[in-house]
Each structure stands twice: as structure tokens, then as C-alpha cells.
Amino acid sequence: MRFAIFAVLVVWLTHRLDWVALRAVGYGAVARPLGIIGGVLLLLLTALAAALRWRGLLLAQEVPLPAGRVMSIFFIGQFFNSFMLGACGGDMARMYYILRDTTARRTETATSVLIDRGIGVFIQILLGCALLFLIWPLVRTHAALQTVAWLMFAIGGGAALALAALLWKNLFEHVALFRRLEMSTPLGTRFRRAYEELFRYRRRPRALVSAAVYSLLSLLFQIGAVACLGHSLGVAASFTSYLVFVPIIGVFASIPLTPGSFGVREGLFVVLFQTVGVDAHQAVLLSLLFYAAGLVWSLVGGAIFLGYSAGAGFNLRGELARIRQGANEVDVPPAARP
To answer: What is the pTM of this model?
Structure first.
């Protein structure tokens, strides 16, 4: 189904594009390389801010890993997100490597990866919904923007209700369904421990505020990166347009509708930026350039991954096998593993 959606989106985009015009826009970007370099560097700051957000959560859980090690593991996760093991590959890799350095509270430590991802997505949703009001007169005059806006508000309302339900009361103590889940399924106990680690953040407001600040910084760097790339392509859009559209695109692109969000991301760039007068060819190339610039730092994560594998005495295939196996060994101490 995901490949079918991808195919439909590619056909839709292809019929809207003139390949001669697309090539001309691409040549124009090559003639303005400073914007591309600025975008790539800002995406590095985007990743560093996200890595510091995760380190803050680990410190709140009393997992005092050095910042350099957390950064290395984070970039390995970026590599796996882009090239290996599918959409959840980066989270699996991060869990595996963080557990290699942890001897206690292993389920809780692994949960930090999911909490980190959840906070990042929630801030993106919140900012995307709030910033829509900056262009509300424009939203009222474009049917496509109205559809996107109401979908964003629905996603934001659902996310807020889900978060409130998770943190209002301990569900395993007050809801019989969760108690039965704990008693009747093999993963019930582990799931409860992971949930209770999330629930403890009610008593860690400083950690949550810090994570939110780093999320905002990461998102602002990302917006700046897309604006720089847009400048290299000659995109005539205000910074307000980037400020509103980039978080929205990030939210929808995080939904696994197609492999790697290909087609979804490009379609959103076209639909949203055309409302402010941006040519479809520029919008498509902006999306592809944004993706390619992100791959630069994912490849850096790949180099770090190879170093980790060699340092542990494993070849690439052996280390991949251990990462897959590690997803099922969250509670097994390192000394007990074969």
C-alpha cells in the first residue's frame, strides 16, 4: 500500500513538472553554492540540538554518558533512519548502543529513545498548529491550506489528549485493562516499566522544559536550513512562509505513508509553497535538496557506525545481526549474553 501511494504521488508530480525547467532551476542552485553550504551546516546544528535534547533526558534518568558518546550514538541513529532497517531503524540502533553502556534499569534507559522522539514530534505539532495563525488570512483563501490546517488541528488535539491521558494518572493502577495487559502478555511487565518511566516525568519539569527548548532550537535550525536551500534555488518566499510550512511538512512526513516519505514530502512542498507563489519546480527541488543535505550527516553517522563495529571486533554483517538481536534483549545484562 505504501509503494502504491508513493507511485500515485510520483505520477501526480511528474505530470505537473517540465523536466527542462526543473534542470534549469537545478543549474541555478549550483551557481549559488553558499546557500547549499549554509543549509548543510544548519542541519548539523539541527542534529546537535536534538542530540543534546536526548542527553538531557538521559541525565534526568541518571544515565551520565559523556556528551561525545551520546552524540556518536545519535548520529548512528540518523544513519540507520536513512539507510538501514526501515523507519524505526534509528531508534533500534540507539537503544542497542545505549544499552551496551548501561548495566541497570535497562528498559527505562531504552525508553528514553521513545520519549525523546515523542517530545520532538509533539513540539513540532504544537509549533505547526500555533504558527498557522500567522498566515490565517492566506489560509482562508486557499482550500488546500484549509485542509492542511484542520488536519494539523486534529493531530494537535489528538496528541494533547493522548499526552494528558498518559500523564493524568498511572493507567496501570487505575485502569483494569492495563492491569490485565500486564498479567496476560509476556511483554506486559516491560511495557509497564517503560510507561512508568514516562509517568515519572510529571516530577521532572526541568527535564521537560529543557527538552522542549532543545526541540525548538532544533526546529528553528531546520527552518533556517530550508530557507538557505531555498535561497540557493531562487525561491521568492518570506521567512514567515518557511517558519509556518517546514514544521507542518515535518509532521506529515513523519507519518509512514511511503518509504522514506518520498512523494509525500515533495507533494507537500509543492502544495504549500505554491500558495505563496513559488514555482512547482523550485518546490520539488527544494524538497529533494533538503533531503540530500540531511543525508550528508547521516553518512557521517555511517562512518561512526563502522568505527564502533570495528572497535567491538565485529564486521558490518555481524554488528547488524547484534543490533536486531539487541531489540529483544533489553533486560538481559551484558555479562549474561553469549
So the answer is: 0.84
